[in-house]
Amino acid sequence: MKDINKKTGLARAKDIYNHRSKRARELKAEGKKVIGYFCCFPPVEIMTALDFLPLRLLGDMDEPITVADGYLPTVMCIFYRSTFDLGMKGRFDFIDGFIGAHACDGAERTSYIWSNYIKTPCNFFLDLPHVDKGEAVSYFKGQLNYLKETIEGLAGKKLDIESLKEAISLHNKQRQLVRELYYLRKPDPPLINGSEVLQVMISIMMIPAEEGNALIQEVIDEVKTRQDIPDKKNGRLLVWGSLIDNIKFTDLIESSGLNIIIEDTATGTRPFWHDIEETEDPLDGVARHYLQEVKCPRTFAETDTSYKEDLENRYSYLKDFAKYWKVNGVFGNIIRNCDIHGYEIPAVKDYLESLGLPVLIIEQDYSTASLEPLRTRFQAFAETIG
Amino acid sequence: MSFIIGLDIGSALSKAVIMQDKTLLSSGISPSEGNFLSAINSVLQKALGKAKLAISDIDLIGACGLGASFIPHSFHKISDISCQSRGTSYLLPTIRTLIEIGNQSSRIIQVTEQGKVADSLVSDKCAAGSGRILQIVAKVLKVDLKDMGQLSLKSTQPVKFTTGCAVFLETEAISRVAEGASRENIIAGLHQALTARIAAMAHRMGLKEDCVITGGGAKDRGLVKIMGEKMGKTLLVPDNPLITGAIGAALIVTEKKG
Amino acid sequence: MKTENKKIKKKSGKTLQTAREASYFAKKMLKNALQAQEEGRPIGWSMVTWWQGELIARAIGAELVFPENYGAFCAATGGAEKHLEISDSEGYPATLCGYARNSIGYAKLLSDNNFVPYEGAPGGGLAKPKFFLASGTACDARYKWFQALKRYFTEAPVWTVDLPMPGTKEFFYKGNKELGLKYIVDHLKDYVAFLENLLGTKLDYDRLNEIVDQTFKTLALAHEVDILRRAVPSPMVGSDFWSIMIPHLYLPEDPEAYEFYKKVYAEVKQRVDNKIGAIPNEKYRLMFAELPPWHSLGFFGELAEKFGMAIVIESWNYHAILPIPEEEFEGVTDPLEKVAMLTYYKWTEYNKVALEYNVDPGFFMAAYFQFAKDYKTDGLLAHPLMSCRPATYTLLHTKNTLENKLKIPGVVIDGDIIDLRVFNEKEAFSKMEAFVETMDHYREERKKAGIAW
Amino acid sequence: MFYAGLDIGSTITKVLIKNERKVCTTVIKPTGAEHRRLANEIMDEALRKLNLTTANISYIVATGYGRINVPFADKQVTEITCHMRGINWLFPSVKTIIDIGGQDSKGIKVDNGKLVNFVMNDKCAAGTGRFLEVISDLLGVKLDDIGEISLQSTRPTNISSICTVFAEQETLLQLSKGTSIEDILAGIHRASASRIHSMVKKIKIEKDVAITGGGAKNIGLCKALEERVGFPVIVPPEPLITGALGAALIASEETKKISKEELIEKQLKRRWEAVTFFDEKPTKG
Ligand SMILES: Nc1ncnc2c1ncn2[C@@H]1O[C@H](COP(=O)(O)OP(=O)(O)O)[C@@H](O)[C@H]1O
Ligand SMILES: Nc1ncnc2c1ncn2[C@@H]1O[C@H](COP(=O)(O)OP(=O)(O)O)[C@@H](O)[C@H]1O
Ligand code: SF4
Ligand code: SF4
Ligand code: SF4
Q1: pLDDT for C105-120, tens place per residue?
Q2: Helix (H, G, I), strand (E, B) or coil at D199
Q3: CATH class entry, domain A4-161
Q4: Quick one: B149 and B226 in the same domain?
Q5: ipTM exceeding 0.95, yes/no
Q6: Do the Cβ atoms of A40 and A53 come closer than 8 Å?
Q7: Structural domain of residue B16, as residue ranges?
Q8: Residue from the list A373, A376, A384 with its beta carbon closest to the beta carbon of D115
Q9: D120 in contact with A at a CB cutoff of 8 Å?
Q10: Which of A312, C151, C158, D248 sees the fewest Cβ atoms within 10 Å?
């Protein structure tokens, strides 16, 4: 019997993925405080700099939603209904602080309802403008200041500029490592499959940044030299849309004749693709990064150009992804009732299809119980692009 | 001392009670079988016969249910939800949540101390969460409806159904039989599938104790047990869970007109 | 004549003469736009931005139409179904906002038909936009939807006016209100530049000042009507309100709107003074939560008739803003600043109530706590919408909390603004019938708990 | 060289064997609860008809609901692709395919012989073949006849329930009211067609349109759909086998892609066993 703690790389990521709050609870027992947060917008840098463990709050596709149904209507984003359900069931009862965020309506309203029913010693609602102009950045920076003040209270100390700068470079390092990990998927077949990457991505949102960085490095080293690489499949898939946080889903996709190569989602590239610029007042860089560089369609990019140019402006990064990673198909993943991505479907399709990339859109129910019927759809798609 | 009739003319079963001064004198049940008129007559006869009364002795009729409009006497129509809650609370005054599993739909009703409705939720338009499935599967398995509960309790490894649709459940049950799954396990699997549907509704509404289960589904002990386990609550069952609606109809009409 | 009147009443549930006249304003908007198109004046498709974007656009000479309002119009006249189907076949999820799907379908038809409204389009159709005025407030659909419409009007720019939406507690952080107002003003300056650039004219600030002043005047009067409605029995009902809200929500700067509210005020006041109820036999006073089923408004008329239920007040966001204290305006001369205050104060006006009752959010929710008191209500009729998530998210939460904190029970009637299939009138009636008992029960509870009404 | 397509549907199992030039034989048998796992016997029957053995078949493609675990198939392909290929071979002009199977219905878009889009309903029995089976059972009319009978209707009833179970009860009520079977069936077909149409519309219905799958054997349903679509639709002479045909077409293509040695190795690996349907093994009774 191997000691769990001795596991390295992929095996360790798998462990952390399977026992998501284990490390947080351990650290808490050692006196570290944990802050749970919604979506990829509350800056983890500020939390890390104040010695908190930032913990991304996610749902669970394996757990039927029950308690939440008494509080949240079923027309809501199922992902946040699930997250709230877990919260009500005490899955996150160890957190010391809660940071809700105005990412989308689902996240925003759930944040309110969350703080009404799930009490934590400290909570903050982070308002995030919908547009990315200069004045919006200034306003957002102001909100970040309030966030900082609030959790300074919980920390019992002030944030000093130097530790914020350190935290920023620590997390920038993480971003760079994530990108390196993604580059390992360039060969055909990729050196690492979608489920493995997902396990790593989820893991680093559950543990301190230094530990996360070490974990990714281990994985990179392991994968570079390993023999048992994934099989070659028909399709090299770009995943776009609502987040995926369960490997049963990626397993299903990858066992239907497709390799997942890159994910433009909130648990994929979005929070990691650009580094935070190191500015004189570090909060300037932080504010700009989250408002302008996290490429989620929840942020409205102002446009007074033609439709075509607009698509080019907003989605040319997908073209770059597709080219660099040589993908030949796109899966648009829509968690049912996700408006942010739902309104984009025809536009994204227009754009990608104009590049010659076939697109499969599926609206799914964020539940592993309803995954199997999707198999035929993925297989048919693999047959189309193969 | 007036005699009151309460009727609940459901899509599967017609139920009648006769009450006098808030005491239950007699009751009767007949299958509706798509012919409401003859079901109403038959069920009236049963109840009147037991109480040794004639229809001319009756002062008031209160009725609910899908087929109430077929009643050939003058009567007062009352909403199903109110009847269920009043009738059930008459039998079991401590209840606060009522789960009714009828033939066409299931309902969750929150009941006040006075037996009035505080809130309700109905499964609608889809038979996936209704008692009808029990009948369908009983037929497939050639089992008497009455024995379903007993059989379910003996299951060791309930079958996992891959669908919620009542129609596909039937097909799947047939295949499972062919594959050699036992009746016990199929029935228990069915009960779990049904429970999952209803539990989702129940959670939307919230379960306040005491909880009671009524309607045809409540006759099925296996279903009641699995549901109780799944919802983590003790579910009470009235002695005769089918006639709660009819009792309610009689009580409400008495208050309103008596 | 008499029978005809009765027919109208059954269909709409309106009780005020002025409410029947209000449809003039809806038609006026559509007509103005079509006329503007003929004259070659710029037309914008606009969201309700709570006056933030509209007033400025109008001051610079643009004509605005409201696809949201058009959605309700199409639903009420039976023309929406066709549009919804087209939206589906364009690949938009059927779970999106019904108004959005309606206008997407219409947009597709319009662009296929060389931007001439098709034969028989409801209300003559919406004219082709020169630009879109989207909003970041309250609802993601309000900017994602217009962004999507660009597919059909490929050259028309989309502008999103944004509004800070801090949490209730955060709103009261020192300096946050000022920060928010500064953001809006700076953002509006950008918006003005955008419009000036697009339309090739300069904004006339004096004109804007006039428009803003007129708007405040109209809104203040509309608020006076809201105050009159506190009377028992209720002098007007929801069905009236959904008609009379059109001028203040969409055309507050139009002097005709002001004149109109004078008439409304007089009519309502006359009823209050003479203790005339809008419905014959008022027994229960209900608050209505969020948008009504436009296609089945007659439902409320029947509720009134059968159970004596009056809808005495409805969702906060359609109502005129509460008066802003004079002193807040001291030293404020820039009309952009006034616009910023108008919208931001509207948005946050119930934050204090939210703190008092310890409920969040302050918008969409807290107002019901104030209404319950002011309007002496017996219950909440919550109408969760199949296709409008923003208005539905907090409904259960609101209902639960009202029950807990104020002993005001709620009933949930599932429905939609556009989609006819989900609203089951029979089921709804039987629920309302049962709800009568519930309200009776809670009246007792309120008495026991010593809650006033 | 012979190629086989095996379509194990939820309701009907179809085998088609063809050579380079033509279809040699087809066998159509109910999948039936007991027969589900016996696809190998249906294969055998087809082979016997042609006096062939498995060794004569170069390549076998399995499709349909039960394709997942066919031990003797060389490849599994979804029924979506197979129906598309089959129809495309028969009617190259078709752009939209409506497939009405036993437990699901689908809309498939084709462009130049390529699958471009599809939608499917497999969650609810409304708008599937099963719905019509249930009703024909209830009315005591043979499934083969319901189409023709419904065409006799003069005043189709309105069936308002979407749910199969409720529609069944509505039918009973209509019967007791004395409504004729013709009118009821016409109403049922309309209700089905409306349901199927509103799903397929999501992928834009473009000319030409073909209806296939078992549901296409029902002339009443086809007519009702045609009415909805608004222009004439194509129905293949034997709509049940288009899936198996597509599978056989793919089989012949696949053969060309691989070497003789690989082919032989594949054939050796075929296990002539029963097919399993469910992952989880039910306990034996
Ligand atoms: N032992 C039983 N006796 C009678 N009905 C039962 C029994 N077990 C289950 N049921 C189910 O109860 C349903 C009838 O319930 P009921 O509440 O009378 O419905 P409705 O009022 O719609 O007729 C039938 O669908 C039947 O399947
Ligand atoms: N002769 C017929 N007349 C009318 N319907 C038929 C006929 N034969 C089959 N069907 C219908 O076709 C369905 C089966 O179609 P099929 O395409 O084989 O489905 P699957 O592939 O799922 O088995 C049955 O449910 C039945 O409703
Ligand atoms: S899935 Fe969509 S609606 Fe849900 S949290 Fe993500 S962006 Fe928001
Ligand atoms: S608030 Fe509701 S109705 Fe208005 S745009 Fe948003 S989703 Fe549509
Ligand atoms: S899923 Fe089944 S039970 Fe539900 S509506 Fe459809 S046919 Fe009826």
Answers
A1: 999 999 999 999 999 9
A2: helix
A3: alpha beta
A4: yes
A5: no
A6: no
A7: 3-83+243-257
A8: A384
A9: yes
A10: A312
